Amino acid sequence: MDIITLVSLSIGLAMDAFAVSISNGMSIKNITTTKILIVAFAFGAFQGLMPIIGYYSGILFSDFISSIDHYIALITLSFLGLKMIKDGFHEKYGNDNIKSIMIFSLKLLIIQSIATSIDALAVGINFIAFDVNIFRASSLIFIITFIFCIIGGYIGRLFKDALASYATIFGGVILITIGIKIFITHII
Q1: Where along the chain do its domains lie?
Q2: pLDDT digit string (tens) for 69-125?
Q3: Which residues pair with 46 in a beta bridge?
Q4: pTM score
Q5: Taking burial as the number of CB atoms within 10 A of a residue's CB, which of 50, 57, 159, 174 is the most buried?
Q6: In 3-state terms, what secondary structure has residue 28?
Q7: CB burial string 171-183: b at 16+ within 10 A, e below
């Protein structure tokens, strides 16, 4: 696999994490540069690690993984998205007068990281068929995802104040849309 194809693939894999990073930038309470970097690192690490896991699990689990990965992404992202929408409506119409509902936590970070990197696991399985240096490919996927997620976090933070009470609702819609996209692309 040539470098242009690998970079293109890495950008494609980073798009879900990028969109969730925008959502996090808009929705996480007190989003700081440190939190943006932590999210970007976690998303990049999972995106980089999943192809290695997929590559080495290979033929043994490929049918099982490809049969459920889209369900896992759909359920986890939809659950988080629906919670954000509910919290956003509570924020907008409830008595609370706060700008952000989502609390930055390790649990949230891990769930989002797994949900946005499931497709990278399947890519790792597919790397078996190509002459790919898995560690070089995974490093590139990590770096590109990390950079895109930093940009996404700052974009979300920039629009947080402009969207005020709609930010959490919009972020939830983004997560659900990503989950549905992943699900549809795997069943078609």
Answers
A1: 3-72+103-163
A2: 778 778 877 887 787 787 767 666 654 444 445 778 899 899 999 988 888 887 888
A3: none
A4: 0.74
A5: 50
A6: strand
A7: bbbbbbebbbbbb
